[in-house]
Amino acid sequence: MLESRVVQLDHQHTDVSRGNSDMKEFKFGNTTVVIHSPLVHMNTDEKKKWFQDEVEKGNKVLKQIVAAVGECYRIP
C-alpha cells in the first residue's frame, strides 16, 4: 500500500516566473515556434562571441549540435 508523506518546508515556496523577457515567437504556416533564450535578442556579434565562449568552455551540447550540422553537409 502506498503511504503518503508530506515534506514540511521551512519557508513558503514561491514560483519565480521569468516572464516573456527571453521569449520570441515565430509563426510558420499554422505552426507556432516559441524560443526561450536570451540568444534571440542578441545581435550577430554578440551571438558569435557567445558561441565562441561556449566552445572554449567545452559546452558538450553545443559540440553535439555542431557535429550534427556538419553531418548534414557531409557528402556521402
Fold and architecture overview:
The protein is of the alpha+beta class and 76 residues long. It has a domain at 42-76. The chain is 37% helix and 16% strand. It is built from two helices and two strands. It has helices at residues 44-57, 60-73; strands at residues 23-28, 31-36. A two-stranded antiparallel sheet has the order 1-2. A hairpin with a 2-residue loop joins strand 1 (23-28) and strand 2. The protein is extended, with a radius of gyration of 20 Å.
Summary tags:
single chain, 76 residues, alpha+beta, two-stranded antiparallel sheet, 37% helix
Compile the SSE list and pairings.
Elements: E1 23-28, E2 31-36, H1 44-57, H2 60-73
Antiparallel strand pairs: 1-2
Element order, helices and strands? EEHH
How much β-strand is present in the residues? Answer: 15-25%
Largest sheet: 2 strands, antiparallel
User: What is the strand arrangement across the widest sheet?
Assistant: 1-2
Rg over CA atoms: 20 Å
Distance between the termini: 57 Å
Mean pLDDT level: 82
Helix amount, in percent?
25-40%
Number of strands: 2
Shape category: extended
Structural class: alpha+beta
Low-confidence stretches: none
Figure out the total of helices.
Answer: 2
Question: What's this entry about, in short?
Answer:
With 76 residues, this protein is α+β, with helices and mostly antiparallel strands.
